[in-house]
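In the current project phase, work has continued on tokenised descriptions of protein folds. One protein thus recorded appears below exactly as we store it.

——
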Amino acid sequence: MDGILLYAFGAAFVAGLFTNLMVPPITRLAVALRALDHPGDRRLQAGSVPRLGGIAIVLGLALGGGVVAVSQWGRLGTGAGRGELVALALGTGIVFFVGVLDDLVGVSAAKKFLFQLLAAWLLVRVGWSFEVLRLPGVGAIDLGLCREVVSLLWIVGVTNAINLIDGLDGLAGGVGTIISVSFLAYAILQGNPGTVILMASLAGACIGFLRHNWEPARIFMGDSGSLTLGFLLAATAVHSSLKAPATVAILVPILALGVPVMDTLLVMAVRFLDRPKGPFTTRFLRMFRADRNHLHHVLEHFGGNRSRIVAVIYAVVLSFCALALLVAITGQTALGVALVALEFSVVLAMRQMGMSRDARRLARLQREEIKTELGLAEPEIATIRRIAS
């Protein structure tokens, strides 16, 4: 693996450099094609920003990883069969081109979901699926016929979870870099050179793109970037589980990807539980509609610099990626389950803190409006509130 690490560094360097060089022409292309993100409910930038940055990321990834793959094919070919590599390439291509179309002309959520399922199905068909779930006190649970469904949901879910965190400058690219590096380290532990090169190239491409995506961002990666990034991380997680001991096969990917995945699940639950008396179909479809309820949105209620919010999320993701590697090294199921529960508690607590701060802010604004409209002093408002209660 020593020689492969040197090639991995080279792949990361080439991917980062080429992505960095490709961003300016891609930016001009996005402006010419009017592929722009305008300020709105989920985008908080001051003006319009090009959103085809994913093309630069994928070009850098392809060049960095491709050069090394060709030069070291004999050493990398043992990690996956030819059919598996073709399935991964086709699946990534499908997700990428759907993302490009969405950035250019828009694609409905249903159509994106169907194409993501197709891409995930290609991987599952060649054997990339979770097989065993192991829990303390229960032992190994063979997923059996459910493994394909679980794997499909995982790949599509992670793909969209990474897409949905792309709401602040530098957030998706930085989180993707951290998770890629953690999977790279995991692949080294497993002796999987192909994944080492892929994750090194992906991390390098993300770093090259981040130079142009820091606040204030000059370009966004768009769906072409965030969906492709999410798909590759999801696929890598499934593939790594095939070579991992049954005790940690699923726990390590869950820990590494837990922050975006758990936040997405919590947001979907909030959407479904909102207006509980509404029709079930309406509540179900509402789970997949974009809004401003994700972790990075609710943390904005604390105010301050948005780059500080991004740094906080980086720190949380980095911490749990490091803990995922600890679980991989120790092979302790109980430790992994405990850390997954801790990660869920941390994400939930961060969301609750942000929402509580927003509730207090709204209450303060309402008091100010009442004072302005009625000309009342604070003691009089307090008296009215006591009487009303």
